[in-house]
Amino acid sequence: MGTLPSAQAWFKFGETTGAKLMTDQMIAETTPENVSDVTTEPDYEVVVIGAGVGGLYQIKRLVDLGVRATVLEGDDDLGGTWYRNRYPGARFDSESFTYGYSWDKELLEEWHWIEMFSPQPETLKYLNFVADKFELREHLQFNCYVEQMVFEESSCSWVIHLRDGRKMTARFVLTAIGPLSVPTMPRIEGVDSFEGESFHTFHWPIEPVELAGKRVAVIGTGATAIQLIPEVAKEAETLTVFQRRANWAAPLNNRDISEEEMADIRKRYDEIFAACARTPGGFEHEPDRRGFYSVSREERLELWDRLYDGPGFGIWLQNFVEIFMDEDANAEFSDYIAERTRRRVNDPQLAEKLIPKDHGFGIQRVPLETNYFEAYNRDNVHLVDSSETPIERITRTGIQTSDQHYEFDLIVYATGFDAFTGAFDRINIRGVDGVTLEEKWSDGPVTYLGLLVHGFPNLVMISGPQTAATNFPRGAELSVDWATGLLGHMWSEGKKRFETDLAAEQGWFDHVVKMYEPFLLRTAQSWITGYNSNLEGHEYGKTRYNIYNGGGPRYASRLQQVAQEGYEGITIE
């Protein structure tokens, strides 16, 4: 083989700006001939599964290196989350300019984010722009739903079976299938009996849905429903919301971005991404480290008023660190948010139903909203408290609760996702000795760095379970750059097989568990802890450690350390 960059060169971190790409010189040194010398046996050297945010960046890295690679996408076009979630109100809760890709200066110069928090159609337009600009479409295969993957020891490769009956082989597989890509329907009798129109928000039709004059039901009040409900309320004849558990929410405070402001953002991109790499959540919002009890009540209220009226996750992530760890601090802040909510709902009794009583603000990922609470002031919007009058069944014409029957023309299920592991469970992934990943993860995910799994060689999970819980593209870029570095190391050494060691995997899992312990999120009834009432085995109290809660900088530092130490914890053959 020709000369390839060292392991350290393939994966580099700046001191403050996070993961950096290989230089143009490094890419030039890595010719297609270098890579293709490794093997000609499999159909592809690398198969990427998923053409969303992570998958597009991963194929870009591989194409630049001349690797024989392809992307398999189950849908009929690219976009992942932003292709599927077309419901009214779907948009970023990350500031747009912190969500876009950071790795190409020309792209940063050319794209104008039109809103502070980009709506779904504009985000999908952005991803298509990226794919077209870098000529990635020729490397994407659509309507290629992967049903099974089997690792074959004799050839040291993965055999991939598609739903249409085809199969292909790959030396390495990189999954970019998304943490929230498998919707869950409620376990309610009669779901299939409704004769009107019904669907999960994830399957919102591409064709416009006529809401005017319709009697609409929305089941669920999670993050998706909180975006959806105000939009449906504007058009529907009536909207009835079925709430099982109240959810905290705070204002998104979205607005347009002018040409002048966008020009200033372009000048600050290095500063913006440096801030994202420095903060635990991968946003510009940095925690207030003065100390909750070190400032007066008046100073706390001043901060909270300013953050509540400010954009995005500031109210959550720019707050005092103690609200995440100290029950008394969290209770005081939750009381503040409850009072702000009461001011926005005209009916005091209804306001109390919309305020959670079973958990504090910020313990779960905070939904951001636009006029969500005001929607309940409309005469055509009604709330049904399912904790008081549970849904008993879906009928041919509507919904029967313990109290009465409701007639509907449309039922929308905003009932969440089988988070993190659900997309993996849908693929029958068989590793060494035929063991399935679903079997190994029956009690929750166990990984090394959130990227590798013992017993499943030559498989890397982009933004898999137990990677850092950050602003998604910032975390995805970390995963992609590290995965590309590992593959580069394999090629430079002429190796064909890698697998994380069992001890390394257990060590990472123990660290993940430890990072839950200081934080109140350990009590969350959410996908962070694996809770989902719509799924067997996902009951509250049976914690599944889905995220790494140590923060983006700590996670990035660990990835850098592993790479610099010759991929510590990984056996390479």
Account of the 3D structure:
- The protein is of the alpha/beta class.
- It is globular and about 70 Å long.
- The two termini are 17 Å apart.
- 48% of the residues are buried.
- The model is unreliable at 1-39 (pLDDT under 50).
List keywords for this structure.
about 575 residues; alpha/beta; eight-stranded mixed β-sheet; about 15% strand; globular; disordered N terminus
The best one-word shape is globular
Compute the gyration radius: what is it?
Answer: 24 Å
Q: Beta-strand level of the residues, as a percent range?
A: 15-25%
- Overall pLDDT metric: 93
Annotation, overall tally of beta strands: 22
Helix content: 25-40%
Query: How many individual helices?
Result: 21
Low-pLDDT stretches are 1-39
Largest sheet: 8 strands, mixed
The helix/strand class is alpha/beta
- How far apart the termini lie comes to 17 Å
Topology:
Blueprint: H1 7-10, E1 12-13, E2 19-20, H2 24-29, H3 32-36, E3 44-49, H4 53-64, E4 69-72, H5 81-84, H6 96-99, H7 105-110, H8 120-133, E5 140-141, E6 146-152, E7 157-162, E8 167-175, E9 197-200, E10 215-219, H9 223-235, E11 238-243, E12 250-251, H10 259-267, H11 269-278, H12 297-308, H13 314-317, H14 327-342, H15 348-354, E13 368-369, H16 372-375, E14 381-385, E15 391-394, E16 398-401, E17 405-407, E18 410-413, H17 422-425, E19 428-430, H18 437-440, E20 459-461, H19 472-493, E21 498-500, H20 502-516, H21 552-564, E22 570-572
Parallel strand pairs: 3-4, 3-8, 4-5, 6-19, 8-20, 9-18, 10-11, 10-18, 11-14, 12-13
Antiparallel strand pairs: 1-2, 6-7, 7-8, 15-16, 16-17, 21-22
